Amino acid sequence: MKNLYSNLFILALLAVLISCKEDEEKIDPIVGTWILDDAIYSDAPVGYSYSNRTYQSMYGESEYSIRFYDDMTFERELEDLIFQDGSGVEDEGTYELDEEYLMLEPEESVGLSTDFKLVDPVTERDLVLSTSATIGALSDAVIDTITSQESYNTVFAEHAQSITLNIMMNFDKE
């Protein structure tokens, strides 16, 4: 009887050991394709309140996407945005991610932001980044005088000033 219990115990122990295989390595939630949902421009200087807005794009593109791979590389594309030489706006390279920052290190710079602060921790569904950008903008007083696209173009060429804005970028996972 003692032998039977010993054998049952050994079988049970073996069953437990076999069923307790190593946990699969968890994939970082940033891995995958992220699509910009909106960009919130804020903290404009006094007199430039029209620059504080929410946009569906950063630069006029139809879609801003970043794909992160588990080997710490990325690909970024801004669809329907084309440089003067006819090439599309895209880059690729490596990235670094910690609890506070995401840094993109493209192989060749195309003039896009590369350093971001994580507003919230990355989840399986949401990626919220912040950065800053210097843009050409018109003061509120000048904007109030614009009556058409043609007058906007003329006024912008004559009166635009460089201002720096904070930008919060909300991405959804594809």
Q: Work out the radius of gyration.
A: 25 Å
* Name of the top-level CATH class: Mainly Beta
The sequence of SSEs as H and E is HEEEEEEEEHHE
Biggest sheet architecture: 8 strands, antiparallel, barrel
Report mean pLDDT, rounded to a whole number.
88
Number of helices: 3
Strand content: 35-45%
Domains counted in the coordinates: how many?
1
SS-derived structural category: alpha+beta
What does this structure look like?
It is a single chain. Helix content is 19%, strand content 43%. The protein has 174 residues and is an alpha+beta fold. The protein has a single domain, classed as Lipocalin (Beta Barrel). A hairpin with a 7-residue loop joins strand 7 and strand 8. The protein is elongated and about 95 Å long. The mean pLDDT is 88.
For the structure shown, list the relevant keywords.
alpha+beta, Lipocalin, 9 strands
How would you briefly describe this protein structure?
It is built from three helices and nine strands; from the N terminus they run αββββββββααβ. By secondary structure, the protein is α+β, with helices and mostly antiparallel strands.
Break the fold down into its secondary structure elements and pairings.
Layout: H1 2-19, E1 32-42, E2 54-55, E3 63-68, E4 73-82, E5 88-97, E6 101-106, E7 115-118, E8 126-137, H2 140-143, H3 149-159, E9 161-173
Antiparallel strand pairs: 1-2, 1-3, 1-9, 3-4, 4-5, 5-6, 6-7, 7-8, 8-9
